[in-house]
Amino acid sequence: xxxxxxxxxxxxxxxxxxxxxxxxxxxxxxxxxxxxxxxxxxxxxxxxxxxxxxxxxxxxxxxxxxxxxxxxxxxxxxxxxxxxxxxxxxxxxxxxxxxxxxxxxxxxxxxxxxxxxxxxxxxxxxxxxxxxxxxxxxxxxxxxxxxxxxxxxxxxxxxxxxxxxxxxxxxxxxxxxxxxxxxxxxxxxxxxxxxxxxxxxxxxxxxxxxxxxxxxxxxxxxxxxxxxxxxxxxxxxxxxxxxxxxxxxxxxxxxxxxxxxxxxxxxxx
Length: 269
Hints:
By secondary structure, the protein is of the alpha/beta class. It has eight helices and ten strands.
């Protein structure tokens, strides 16, 4: 049985292919300005890597910001990829559960939003809290700060870990926090201390959300920001718990979508 999941996010788009419940291929591309085009591109590239075509699949689930873009096709002849669109909350919960069935809390920090999901038996999402109204505690917040500090987002984690001190960043509003960073630079505050402070600020924001939904062990961090060691380290300190990060936290949503697709394929047999 072949199933697939596509996570069409605001920043990146991922695809995971399962064969009889085992991952056989994954691929990630930037979403860019057109989520439909990104979904079509990641589908074509992943299928090429796996030597498959659309008719090879028993079921495909799409999730994420652009999940509805390629489910029904259109009168204009747009490609139909997905058979069903499912929320990213359900897909991240299921993906984390499939990686470790003892996971009870998923913290997903994406490019434009962050969410905390309480996970029940079978990887079902029981409750959640979400920040999608501003950039606070998201990848976008770190991206803006990285530009201000003249470093890449990828460099920020390692730099934060080298800090001897942590600067206090009092505002989580991206605009005000950027002003704070500019002032700290002017005062001669070490760059690593500022970045460490930014990691703490992100962790504080997200951990506050986690406590609202009810933080339970085990905890998994998913999404692209989970690749940032500085954020992971800061979050561990804030919640005083260990945090699991999978080999590629960016594909957890697509993985969950692929497993949900497998459930759907079984139903239709």
